[in-house]
Structures are given as structure tokens and as C-alpha cells.
């Protein structure tokens, strides 16, 4: 039997792929966003204002079995003042779902909650966020986990890492590389490319988000990631090949940023278990 799943931020970079994955798996999806451009037409579109503060917001959303909360303003602008200004609205919305007895609540987290870290990140890695985005996400996670203690809701905090795919819709180096190639440039100024990160395709990430949200055995912080550190240079070179771009990297044109970790990646133990059990 399919479940009724609310996806907030359904028209976002990741949200559209989560909606499509859930629909393909036979679930009923209620897509919540300010607009629904690009959202799969099989979904039920909703304009419910999740930040209204209404006490019956769970009922307004149709009393879903699962809520996947991905809505977030200025997600690509890490030091936007909007992050901390809006965090209480997110907390109020999620707390209301807990109070209403929503069974499964998943929230999109980020490696930026952790801040600078060298090596593997797991659920127990201490957090010292270094951006307004990371601070706000960390604050929301701590608040929700504390509020939900002793309540009936299953809380899944889904921590993502470096995402690519559907690259014209994000703000990554891959987006800039595509634009440079379209502009006819033959060389792309680059760093040393030696730093290693945890890369994942947005379609694979969407599957992980959906499956982690539908299960109840594993709760708390769940890394949605590849678990494999790959050098930035190697991944970008692969991207150039995969997209048949006539452009080369000019290594060393930019210095490596002092605040970038030489290697950081997620512990994928739990998500691998979830995905293997859902096959």
C-alpha cells in the first residue's frame, strides 16, 4: 500500500526529484511550494502556507503518513540573513506536526552543520557551523530533536553532502563549468583540485531521502551520501568527459581556500542498510 507523503520545497533543486521518485514507487504525493513549476503533474499540488502558525496545519496538509520537509529559503546563499530570521518558523511548523501525531517527519540537513572537519562525519561528530546556513540548520535540528523526545513521531534528520546533476539549477562549480563551456571558453580557472569530498548525483540522493523517510527502524541523523571521498579535480574531470565539454581545467589558477577541509565525507553505514532493505 502506498503512503500519503507531503514534500515541502517540492519545486526545489532536490525536491522535484524526491517527488518523482515517490510517485514512481506508487505513493501519493502532496507537493507543497510557493509555485509548482517543474513538479511532476501526478502530484497533488498544495499552496498551504506551512509557516502560517496555524495549529491545524497537519489537517490542512491532509493528515499525511510522512512529511519530508525540504523547503528552505536562500539555500545556495550560505551567509544570507534569512537563515536565522526564518529558523523559528521552521521550528514552529515541525513542532506542530509532532503535536498532531505525524508518524514520520524527515528534515533536510546539511554537512554545513558540522563546519570544518577532516575525515569521516558520523551521527556523533561534533558540530561547529561556520556559516549562517549551517548555524540555522544545526539550531533547527537540536530544537526538533529535543522537542520530539518522548513523543510518538519518528524523526529522520537527513544530512546531505556535495550534490551534482541537474546542474543548471544549482550554484556549484559544475554549473559554472557548464556556463563557461556554453560561452565558448576553452579553459576554466581552477584550484589545485586535490581536496576530497563526498559527491552524489541528485537522483541518487532523492532515492535515499525518500526511502529513509518511509522507514521507521533508523531515526535521528542519517547521512544521505556516497560514503566515498573523491578529489574535486577527479570528479570535475569526469563531469567534463560525461558532458562532452570542450574545455580544460587550469589547475592552480585559484588558491585552495584555507577553510576547506582536505578530506571530508559522510559515514554511509545506515543509508546503505536502508537502501538494501528497501530493494
Please tell me the CATH architecture of the largest domain by its name: 3-Layer(aba) Sandwich
Proportion of residues in β-strands: 15-25%
Number of E-type strands: 14
Largest sheet: 7 strands, parallel
Q: Output the number of helix runs.
A: 8
Any idea what the shape is?
A: globular
Q: Assign a percent range to the helix content.
A: 25-40%
The overall pLDDT average reads 94
Gap between N and C termini: 16 Å
- The main sheet orders its strands as 3-2-1-4-5-7-11
Query: What top-tier CATH class of the largest domain fits best?
Result: Alpha Beta
Instruction: Please tell me the total number of domains.
Output: 2
Under CATH, the homologous superfamily of the largest domain reads NAD(P)-binding Rossmann-like Domain
CATH names the topology of the largest domain as Rossmann fold
Radius of gyration: 19 Å
N-to-C SSE string, H for helix and E for strand = EHEEHEHEEHEEHEEHEEHEEH
